[in-house]
Amino acid sequence: MSTHHTGALPANPETATLEGKNKVLGFWLFLGAEVVLFGCLFATYIALRNSVPDGPTADELFKLKTVGWSTFILLTSSLTSVFAIMAMHKQKLGQLLFWLAVTVLFGLSFLGMEIYEFVEYVHEGHKFTTSAFSTSFYTLVGFHGAHVAFGVCWITLLILQGLRKGLTVVTAPKFYVAALYWHFIDLVWVFIFTVVYLMGKVGH
């Protein structure tokens, strides 16, 4: 397994080739579609968040301390992915892979806390089919959690690829778009934290 790239790379290896530029552009278009999708889920949740004929309300359910820690973990993982791309631009493969691994660990921690949170809610009577509020909540937050899980798997595979192939103009765009994706799901979580949890506690 090689931990060194071969030869000097351009200053911005992720867009050094036409293929790399196309990957980055294509990924921005993909994120645009994701914004529309999440926008629909947010709109649905906002419309249904007070529809609680049966089961606990948002104010009764949500514990901001727990969600606050989840938010801190995910935002910290966004910072470590920034460190990874900075290392990539310095052509330091070992540091790049290290920070990506830390990002994955934070992502797994976030998922663990979210699963724990969901289990607690189910025990309190907040199931997927309990009310329109619970259905829209689990759909939105669970859909985001699935994106985090996908990101964890994706970055893990890229780490393994980086160990095998090193840092090249072919692998660099893959690292770059994965970091973009991670920033996107972190940004979506900020909106979820605000719209779902904060509004659930103070906006009812």
Automatic annotation (TrEMBL):
<feature type="domain" description="Heme-copper oxidase subunit III family profile">
    <location>
        <begin position="25"/>
        <end position="201"/>
    </location>
</feature>
<protein>
    <submittedName>
        <fullName>Cytochrome (Ubi)quinol oxidase subunit III</fullName>
    </submittedName>
</protein>
<feature type="transmembrane region" description="Helical">
    <location>
        <begin position="96"/>
        <end position="116"/>
    </location>
</feature>
<dbReference type="InterPro" id="IPR024791">
    <property type="entry name" value="Cyt_c/ubiquinol_Oxase_su3"/>
</dbReference>
<feature type="transmembrane region" description="Helical">
    <location>
        <begin position="136"/>
        <end position="163"/>
    </location>
</feature>
<dbReference type="InterPro" id="IPR013833">
    <property type="entry name" value="Cyt_c_oxidase_su3_a-hlx"/>
</dbReference>
<dbReference type="InterPro" id="IPR035973">
    <property type="entry name" value="Cyt_c_oxidase_su3-like_sf"/>
</dbReference>
<keyword id="KW-0472">Membrane</keyword>
<comment type="similarity">
    <text>Belongs to the cytochrome c oxidase subunit 3 family.</text>
</comment>
<keyword id="KW-0812">Transmembrane</keyword>
<feature type="transmembrane region" description="Helical">
    <location>
        <begin position="27"/>
        <end position="48"/>
    </location>
</feature>
<keyword id="KW-1003">Cell membrane</keyword>
<dbReference type="InterPro" id="IPR000298">
    <property type="entry name" value="Cyt_c_oxidase-like_su3"/>
</dbReference>
<feature type="transmembrane region" description="Helical">
    <location>
        <begin position="68"/>
        <end position="89"/>
    </location>
</feature>
<keyword id="KW-1133">Transmembrane helix</keyword>
<dbReference type="InterPro" id="IPR033946">
    <property type="entry name" value="Ubiquinol_oxase_su3_dom"/>
</dbReference>
<feature type="transmembrane region" description="Helical">
    <location>
        <begin position="175"/>
        <end position="199"/>
    </location>
</feature>
<dbReference type="Pfam" id="PF00510">
    <property type="entry name" value="COX3"/>
</dbReference>
